[in-house]
Amino acid sequence: MMPPDWRPPTLTTARLTLRPFTDDDARPLFEHARNPNVTRFTLWDHHQTVGETLAFVRDYARLRYREGMAEPYAITVRPGTEPVGACGCFWAAEPHQTMELGYWVAEPFWGRGYAAEASAAVLRYAFKSYQPERMQARVIAGNFASVRVLEKLNFRYEGTLRASLLRRSRFEDVMMFSLLRAEWAVGELTRGA
Ligand SMILES: CC(C)(COP(=O)(O)OP(=O)(O)OC[C@H]1O[C@@H](n2cnc3c(N)ncnc32)[C@H](O)[C@@H]1OP(=O)(O)O)[C@@H](O)C(=O)NCCC(=O)NCCS
Q: What pLDDT score was predicted for residue 79?
């Protein structure tokens, strides 16, 4: 357990600032989290009330920060400061040094490369700070935009876990992707980081 006031450090990219969530983010984030198009391929359902968004930015975030996780980060587009999505990395299986990447971006901001840009920064922070051997990402079959994000990040498709997720009364196929530490390091060298 980390001290109660621990927060993941703010990360900056060319266009984005990624920062920990605060309670004040509930209202602006709700305007995006209430959109069913955003949750078409997510484990969570679109929010019905701002209270659900508050539970995310306050209770869920606090729990994860208490565990010392870089999850969830608020994605903000400079010079703005309001959240337009979330991304982060967390332990999927700590004894096996496997982490998982997750992300979502508000619909008006799709197709600008924000998910890939934000995820690249979070990946760099996570690989350096937590030293995972494996970073994985799971995508519900049909989410082509998310597959493309992972391709841009050099993740490798491993296979599909057929009918492995019961969601909204349907069994969904889940595509598994991974990026190993060595592969990430090669990518960093190529990028000259
Ligand atoms: C998936 C998601 C995060 C992508 O965010 P984004 O900021 O638009 O992503 P990027 O702009 O970095 O990249 C999207 C890529 O997918 C491509 N794309 C978008 N829609 C597509 C589609 N229907 N089929 C194929 N490719 C598609 C874009 O062209 C882009 O590729 P390019 O840069 O080569 O042109 C965003 O659509 C989202 O938040 N969706 C809802 C939540 C979600 O599904 N999260 C992921 C759960 S695994």
A: 98
Q: What is the pLDDT of residue 45?
A: 98
Q: In this predicted structure, what is the pLDDT of residue 192?
A: 62
Ranges of residues in the chain with a pLDDT under 70 are 192-193
Asked whether 186 lines ligand 1 (CB < 6 A), one says no
d(CA 66, ligand 1 centre) in Å: 30
* Predicted local confidence at residue 124, as pLDDT: 97
Among residues 129, 126, 103, the alpha carbon closest in space to that of 116 is found at 103
CATH of 11-132, one of 1.25.40.10, 3.20.20.70, 3.40.630.30, 3.30.70.120: 3.40.630.30
What pLDDT score does 50 carry?
A: 98
pLDDT of residue 187: 85
Distance 38 CA to ligand 1 centre (A): 11
Q: Is 103 near ligand 1, meaning CB less than 6 Å away?
A: yes
The Å distance, Cα 86 to ligand 1 centre, comes to 14
Q: Taking the domains of the chain in order of start, what are their residue ranges?
A: 11-132
